[in-house]
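Meet the record:
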Amino acid sequence: MLEDRACLVSRDYSRSCVQKGSWPYVSLGLENAEIQQMKRPLEDINRVEEIEICVRKVPKRPVVQMDTASPIGGIVNAALAQSATQFRSRRHAGENSNTTSLIGAIGRDLSISCLIKCSRADYGAIASLNRSFQSLIRTGELYRLRRQNKVAEHWVYLSCQLLEWEAFDPSRRRWMRLPRMDPNDCFVFADKESLAVGTELLVFGRDLMSHVIYCYSLITNTWTKGMKMNAPRCLFGSASLGEIAILAGGCDLNGSILRSAELYNSESGTWTTLPSMKKSRKMCSGVFLDGKFYVVGGIGGADNRLLKCGEEYNLDTRTWTEIPNMSPVRTGAARDNEPPATSEAPPLIAVVNNQLYAADYADMELRRYDKDNRVWVTVGRLPERADSMYGWGLAFRACGDRLMVIGGPRNACEGFIEVNSWVPSEGPPQWHLLDRKRSGNFVYNCAVMGC
């Protein structure tokens, strides 16, 4: 790979076209070409690299080709062949190798139609082919076209170390490491919330004197700081839908519980204040369901009691409606050896195919919300090894058409993070272990990015 390439790829791979494990990828090397001279150093991520390629015969060596049976394999190999032909013809004519076309044989529109259906794990290879491919990805145009055509690929982003984030591709079952965050000590040890929206991962925390937001961009593969909400907060409920996200409730710097809500648009980078909820609440959860935003459960009221209700926000009418008994969290007295319910994690809820599910960590049960009768129904069990500390450290997320439970067993010596998946449309709950990795910590933060 190229240094500072603005795409997620494993750090373990060399720059040659080799295969480690079962992940094929393509560098700038062509099978019968050698890079003789770098005309411009690869130091600036915003600079387009100029690479002069001199084609000459070299001894044949084994090269891993991308699988031509897959969409990306056919596209990349076709583009490589086209690029090699262009390099030869321009070199022969004495021209600079300034390739700007996509796949000439099928035209730009069909090229883009194919590209938006490719896995974004392959976009690093695609960006290395020529300037047009590179521009499509670096400007974010390709992701906007994917969204317009309702094409989304969902990856899980999680942090099990204070400043380190990883992305997990559930389809290919591969991990990718993000650049390390570089905040101050106050942010490191403060409570954090996370939210993925559009092509951004937002991490909310606290600086010495204020709340602060760090933003990871999938387009640039970098972290930035400085985004400001209209009413900064923590311990809020949130959810995203495409390029927008809604954050509701939470606490301000003084610890006051809020009723206010805001909408964030990742395309414009703007925050819009929404009408306030009917009840103040913190430690709540948020989801989008049937095109509406719901905030569920939490702690509120003058006596900081556990709230059983939820609230529905209609984006068209800009109004809130209270929904009784929507929270799946128990509200009775604490059972033996358990803390009060107000000490537990916010409700572990997720939506798949417009159906709301909840994870009950105490009874290890999976529940579904009956929207017609407004009651919770037990539908099965959670994975057996999904350990947590009163719900903390266990991630329960929707990831496209599947539910994900991310957590794992641990003891005094070691621990593991296990990624379990169930697709509700395939039948009763039956969890499949996608991957397992060693980790000494719980899952601190987790978000799912679909783009």
About this structure: Residues 23 and 99 are 27 Å apart (CA to CA). The domain at 154-450 is CATH 2.120.10.80 (Neuraminidase). The helical segments are 71-93, 107-115, 123-127, 131-138, 141-148, 185-189.
